[in-house]
Amino acid sequence: MAMTGTTTPHLDPHDPLRHPLDPEEAARAIGAAADQDEAEGVMLTARGALTLLADSPSGCTEQFMRAHGFPAEVIAKLVEAGFATATTERVVAGNRALDVKRLKINDLGWVALTQH
User: Which of 44, 46, 52, 94 has the most crowded Cβ, counting Cβ within 10 A?
Assistant: First the structure.
C-alpha cells in the first residue's frame, strides 16, 4: 500500500491555548454547541473514536470508523482540533486504485484520553 497525500500538523499538547483537558474547551474544539448535554454527548462520541484509534496501532480508515458508528463530522472535527492525524493512502484493489483516509491518534489525543 503506497502512501500519498498530506498529514495534519502536529499540535503542542502543552499549548495553554489549545489544552484539551477541560471537557468544555475540548467540546468547543470539536464543534459542540454551548448546551452542556450536547457537549457531553459529543465528548463521549469523540472519546469513543479516540479509544478506537488508540487500540489500533496502525490507525483506522475513515470507512472503518464510520462503520463503527462514528459520524463523519466527529471524525473531521477530531482531526481539525488536533486530536488525530489523517493521511491519504492509495490502495489498489483488483485493477482499481482508491484513495483512502487513514486516521491515527496523536500526542494531543493521547493526552486527552489519559486525562479523562
Answer: 46
